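User: Structure with iron/sulfur cluster, C-alpha cells only please.
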Amino acid sequence: MEKYSKIRKTTQLTSLAISTVIFAVALYGIITHNDFYFEIGLLLIGFIIVGGLLLSPILGRFWCGWLCPRGTFLEYVLEKISHKASIPKTLRTTGFKLFIASIMAVMFLIVLLGKNPLLVSPDKLASIGGFIVFICIVTTLLISIPLGIVYMPRTWCGFCPVGYAQSLLSKNKILHVSIEDCRNCKKCHTECHLDICKDYTGKSRTIEASDCFACMKCTDSCRIGANKPVISLRAAN
Ligand code: SF4
Ligand code: SF4
Ligand code: SF4
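Assistant:
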C-alpha cells in the first residue's frame, strides 16, 4: 500500500521547490551584499515557526515528516548513496541534542549582537535572514550529509534543534501511529527514519515517541494494515 507515500512526496517536493527559490534569492543577496534579498531568508524562519513550531503541539513533528525542505533533501538525495547503518544511540540522547542546540543558540546570539564576522550587515533583519541561510548550508554540508551517507539518510533529524523543539512541544499531540494485531514481520522496521517503530511492534500499542514524524512510511509498508494513524489524546513520551 502506498496510500500516504504519494501524497507525502508531493507535499514534500512542493515545499522543497518553494524553499529552494527563497533560498536562492537569499543566497544571491549574500553574494551581492544586497540587504533586500538577504532579508528574503527570513521567510525560511517564518516557514519554520509556522510549519514547525505552531503545528507541533497538535500534530507533533508533522513539519519534519511532510514539509521541511532539508528533511526532504536528505531523504531523497541521500537515499541512493546512504549506507543506512543504524543511528548510534549517542546521537539520539538528550545531552547531545542539548549540546547541538546550545551551539546554535550561541551562534544566533552572536548574530543578534552584530558580532558575526562572516555576515556583517547594518540591517539586523538581513543579518538574521542571512544567518539562517548560512547555518543551513554549513550544517547540511558538514554534518547532515556526511552522517546521512554513513548512517540513515535523515540521521541529522534525530538531533536537529528545530526538530528537538518540536519534540518538546509534542507531548500532548493528537496525531499518533497505532499498531494493532501486529504479526511482528519487522518489515516496517527498515522504513523508519529514526529507528522508532521497531520498539513498538509485536504488541498492540500506540507509537508515542515524541520524535515520530508521522510520516506514515511504516503504515504504508505494513501489508496487513496493522499499522495506522489515529487521532487520540494520549500523551507522547
Ligand atoms: S529535524 Fe530539522 S532538518 Fe529534520 S525535518 Fe525536522 S526541522 Fe527539518
Ligand atoms: S506493524 Fe505491520 S509491518 Fe510492522 S511488524 Fe507489525 S505486521 Fe509487520
Ligand atoms: S514510527 Fe512510522 S510514522 Fe513515525 S517516523 Fe517512524 S516510519 Fe514515520
